[in-house]
Amino acid sequence: MVGIPQLREASWLITGTDRDPVRHLFVRLEEAVDGSGVWTVELSDCRLHTRDGGHAIHRYNCEADARMAVALIHTLGTHLDPLPTWNPQQREHARWRVRAMPSEPASQVRR
Fold first, then answer.
1. Collapsing DSSP states into helix, strand and coil, what is residue 4?
2. Contact (CB, 8 A) for 30 and 7
3. Which end of the chain is more exposed for a tag (fewer CB within 10 A), N or C?
4. What pLDDT score was predicted for residue 88?
5. Residue 97 parent element (H or E)
6. Phi, psi of 96 (to 5 degrees)
7. For residues 42 and 51, what is the distance between their CA atoms, to the nearest angstrom?
């Protein structure tokens, strides 16, 4: 829909089982479909409230720069020390779970 940012990718840095993961970080990649060409990357710490500094947003003027930022976040996330799971005695290296959303060509965007 024109004017509303469209989600293009969402990813979570998780530990634990895939069935019941512990979410540590959330990354969202959005495209503005208003003709501006602006892409937004949001990074959230799942355990902190926004008011406590657990949220950052940056806007990019092109898709390539935004996707590079997301790739860097994913790379850095894999280098963190082991993180907690639901078991208080267990820590493990985190992994990313990524969901890419299909994008419609501009000619097919509903107006």
1. coil
2. yes
3. C
4. 87
5. strand 95-100
6. -95, 140
7. 15
Classified as helix, coil or strand, 5 is coil
In whole angstroms, how far apart are CA 58 and each of 25, 46, 55, 68, 102?
Answer: 16, 18, 10, 12, 22
Burial of 29 (0-12, 13-18, 19+ CB in 10 A): buried
Say what the pTM is: 0.84
How far is the C-alpha of 63 from the C-alpha of 40, rounded, in Å?
9
Q: Is residue 18 packed enough to be buried (19+ CB in 10 Å), middle (13-18) or exposed (0-12)?
A: exposed
CA distance 57 to 69: 11
Pull the structure tokens for residue 51.
């008011």
DSSP, res 72: H
Whole-number Å distance between alpha carbons of 71 and 77? 10
Report the distance separating Cα 87 and Cα 16, nearest Å.
9
